[in-house]
Specification:
The protein is α+β, with helices and mostly antiparallel strands and 90 residues long. The protein has three helices and four strands. The strands form two sheets. A two-stranded parallel sheet has the order 1-2. The chain has a two-stranded antiparallel sheet with strand order 3-4.
Length: 90
């Protein structure tokens, strides 16, 4: 939720799609300005690009050929914060 909020505060003209496998996070993303939450089962950030592409195309959130900026943030009690930014084309 924090990563989506950090982006939303700049009010980008492009959509923010909040992907999560956590029901509570999904609910909180509904209250982030400009964010379209989407629930993904078995979300694995390490092998994410193909799975995310399939999910976004299946739910008509993007079209083939669209460019995507994936911003990922994770805060775990047993690890440091993990953050990632990647750009790829669907």
């Amino acid at each position: 939720t924090q990563t989506a909020k950090s982006i939303a505060k700049y009010r980008p003209k492009i959509p923010i799609i909040g992907l999560t496998n956590n029901v509570n996070t999904y609910r909180r993303l509904n209250f982030v300005w400009g964010c379209e939450p989407s629930f993904m089962v078995n979300f694995d950030i390490e092998n994410h690009s193909e799975y995310i592409s399939e999910h976004l195309l299946k739910h008509k959130l993007l079209e083939a050929g669209d460019r995507v900026v994936v911003v990922y943030g994770e805060n775990q009690e047993d690890a440091h914060n993990r953050e990632m930014i990647r750009l790829y084309q669907i």
